[in-house]
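4.2 Preliminary Data

To establish feasibility before requesting continued support, the project team ran the inverse folding procedure on a target of 225 residues. The structure was first converted into the token representation described in Section 3, and no sequence information of any kind was made available to the design step. The complete token record follows.
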């Protein structure tokens, strides 16, 4: 029997800093928008899909321009991640993939269909949408393209201020395109690790693909064990 997908939601609308959505929007407008090549190992796109257009605000920009988010990833959100998980949880020690923003602008961008390498992912939705932009997660671990994911899936509609946690190592997932040309979808994506699946399991090939090397850039994360 396939493993059931589940997620935990925290509503942070009363606790995030005043003006946080405007802050995030301003930073997201300066995102690195381009056609990103498919990710090695983890991609679950159809073979003919080699590039997927989207925007990314990289971790150093998050640290410099959204310091509350950089800090929350290692403090308040880490506590929530721990509450959502049966075993001890740690933030990433390598700053480069701790917390980043994924951005979709207009109707042509979407997020690549993939599986996660980390055992616990946090997603903070930063925008609301009349339609489109849903996070779609396959129930079938063997789904190898978007059409297969859509056949049997959970659909999570973005609600600004909601932080969700899930394990999608066995569940291919992607974000649908937006419906309105004027719309922008922003999520903060966070990698967490657990005692049984530590940061050392992250594929070196993934770091080579994303950053051109497989070394650790910096050590500022906090440990829980
Ligand atoms: Fe993911």
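Position-by-position output of the design step:
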């Amino acid at each position: 029997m396939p493993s059931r997908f589940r997620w935990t939601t925290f509503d942070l609308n009363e606790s995030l800093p005043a003006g946080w959505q405007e802050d995030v929007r301003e930073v997201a407008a300066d995102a690195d928008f381009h056609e990103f090549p498919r990710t090695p190992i983890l991609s679950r796109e159809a073979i003919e899909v080699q590039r997927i257009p989207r925007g990314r605000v990289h971790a150093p920009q998050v640290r410099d321009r959204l310091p509350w988010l950089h800090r929350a990833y290692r403090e308040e959100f880490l506590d929530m991640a721990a509450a959502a998980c049966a075993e001890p949880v740690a933030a990433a020690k390598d700053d480069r993939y701790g917390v980043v923003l994924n951005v979709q602008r207009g109707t042509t961008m979407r997020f690549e269909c993939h599986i996660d390498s980390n055992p616990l992912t946090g997603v903070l939705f930063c925008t609301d949408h009349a339609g489109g932009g849903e996070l779609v997660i396959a129930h079938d671990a063997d789904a190898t393209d978007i059409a297969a994911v859509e056949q049997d899936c959970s659909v999570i509609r973005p609600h600004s201020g909601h932080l969700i946690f899930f394990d999608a190592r066995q569940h291919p997932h992607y974000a649908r395109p937006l419906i309105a040309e004027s719309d922008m979808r922003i999520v903060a994506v966070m990698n967490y690790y657990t005692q049984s699946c530590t940061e050392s399991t992250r594929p070196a090939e993934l770091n080579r693909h994303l950053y051109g090397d497989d070394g650790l850039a910096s050590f500022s994360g906090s440990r829980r064990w």
